[in-house]
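User: Please predict the structure of the protein below. I'd like the answer in C-alpha cell form so I can feed it into my own downstream comparison script.

Assistant: Understood. Taking the following sequence of 465 residues as input:
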Amino acid sequence: MLPGGLASSGGGRGGGLCLLRWLGLRLWSRRGTLVFALLWFGSWLFLNGLVLVHRSILSDYCTDEKSKRILQRLCLEFGEGSVTGDMCEDLCVLSLVEYKRCLYYENGKKVIEARWRGKPIILKSKLENFSSYEPLAILDYQDTAEELSPLDVVFYATLEVRNSLGLAEDDEDEGGGGGNSSSLARLWGKKLKNRDKSYSRAELASLWSLLQQEEYTFLRVLQDLSTHVAKVLGSCGHFYAVEYLSAGHAWDQNIFSLDEVPDQGRAGRWAAREMVHRIALSFLDMVWRFDNDFTHKLHLCDIKPENFAIRKDLTVVAIDVDMAFFEPKMRDILDQNCSSDDDCNFFDCSSRCNRIKRRCSPHRRNSNLQVICEKIFRPWFSPTLLGAKAALPLQVELQRAVQECSETDGGVEESEEDAGGGGEGRDVHQRLISILNRLLQEGGTSREGGGAWDRKGHVHTALNF
C-alpha cells in the first residue's frame, strides 16, 4: 500500500505540475500578446507623433523654395495693383533684386538675405502674407482712395505710429514742439510731406501694412535721428529692406567679426583689442543717445550680441528692435500685479514689487547701461580673455568700473525723477568713457576715426508725435 500510495501521490503531484505548466504557458502567451499589442500601439503613436512634429518643423522651416514662393506671390499682387513700393519694380519687373537665402522664419515672420542692385540687403516682414495685415478701415468708407488728401494720410499715419510706439497724443508738445508736419518730415522725408497729389489704394494699403510692424516703425522713425539703428532702404508691399550688417555672436570672444573691418588710415588695420575698445565706446554712445536724444527714454529689453551689429567705422547698430520700448509703453508693460520682484522682470527690463499694493513699479529698476555692462562688457574685459594684460593698472581699473556698472541700478523711482535721479549711472558711464579713451591713447592711437568719444558738441533732438 505504501509504495502504491507513494506512486499515487507522486502521480497526482506530477499531474498538478503539468496543469500549472499549461496554465503558465497560457498566461505567458496572453501576457506576451498584451505586451506585443502595447508595444505595437506605442510604436504607432511614436511614429505618428514623429510625423506630426516633422511636419510642424518643416512648416516653419526656412526653405528657399517657400521663400521664393512668398516673393512670387508678392510680385503677383504688385502686378494686380494691390501693392506697391519703391523696390517693387526692381524686384518684380527688372530682376534687380537677387534672392540669396532665407535667414529666419517663425510664426510667419520672414527674414531673407538678398542683393539689390549689387548691394547686400535684408528683406523683412512680420507676417508672411499681405492679406494677414489689417486694411486701412477708412478705405471701406471712401468711394475712391483719391478722396484722401496727403494731409489725411499724415493724420492717419501719425495716429498709427503713436499707437505702435505707445506714445500718447499729449507727448506731441513735449521736448520743443514740432507738430505733425515736422514729425512727418522726420518720419517719411520731404517726398511725402511735399506731395501734391493723392495716394493710390496700393500706396495706402502698402504703407498701412508697414506701419503695423513695430520694428519697421521704430527703424523708420529713428533712422533720421540716430546712427545706431539699421537703415531702411526701401519697401515693396509688406516687405521692407534694411542694410545688411553681420550680427554679433555670443560664441565669438570679440562678439563681432573684426576681419571685415577695412584698413583705417596710415596705421593700417586696427589691432583687435583696440577695435574692441572703440566698439565699447560706440556702445556707450548708443546708451547715452537712447537715454537723452528723444522726448522719452528708449529701453532695450533684449540685449544680446545677436541683436547688434557694427558698421565698417565700428559704429554699433541695433538691428533687432522688436523688444525696444519708449518710456510710456515701458511703464504700461511693467505695471503688473506681483507677489515678488521676480514677477516684475520683463526680459532684460525689470522693476520692483510693492508687496503692500501687490503691484510692480512702472519705473524700470535697471538700465540699458547696466545690462550692456553685464552681458557685453564683462565677457569682453574678463581676466580670462585679457591674459597677462589683465594685471595692467588701466585694465584693472576698467574691470572694476565694469563690475560696478553691472551692479548699479540705473532706474529711478517716481519720487526721484524730478530730483535728477540716476547719478550713479551717469558717473560710471563717464568713468568707462575716460578709461577706454586712456587705453586708446596709451596704445599710441589717434583720436581720429571715431575711436575716442565724449559728449562735447552733442546735439539734442526731440521725437514728437
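That's the full C-alpha cell string. The two ends are 117 Å apart (CA to CA).
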